[in-house]
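Quick one: structure tokens for this chain, please?
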Amino acid sequence: MSREFDTTFPSDIPIPTDDGACDHLPGMTIPPLSLPATDDTSIKISSLQGLVVIFCYPRTGAPGETIPDAWNSIPGARGCTPQACSFRDTQREFMTAGVNKIFGLSTQSTAYQQEVKTRLNLPFELLSDEKLEFVEALSLPTIDWEGKRLTKRITLAMVEGKIVKVWYPVFPPDQSAQQVLDWLTEEKTAGQKFVGNRCMSVT
């Protein structure tokens, strides 16, 4: 598998802090909305079956794009490619742990995301919230960048359309997938069961 892309990020970037902007999410039922995916289908998130993980990220850079210092200075902004690759490289572990689907989500266009999916060899689909329907329905925190609203880095675990776990802020981004896997292990150790792909706890 090719690794001809940058999966690193500066060690001195500012660390994001929890501002409480996602405190309302645990236990929320996802509204019945559909988003375009990189396989040219439309995904109705609220109807997804079983345990689903969605990692929301601000934006991935284009090939050859120079990342400005202004972007690096935004806490939690940098690191979308390393985050996506962390889920790519642990895909099998997620399936073994009982996760039915993994999706990435950003406010970038599907056409842009399709290039990213191909370039990074991602085995899961990316969802485009270009119209900000998901962001606004869930009141997700955002970043204003060059006239566009981008979602902050958030990871959601859902069962039958209900949010059962939220990771926010997510840092470092290249450890995002492992954070979710660690939670799955803790749930199993604590005796929480995803019986019939239905999680019995909300945290």
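The two ends are 36 Å apart (CA to CA).
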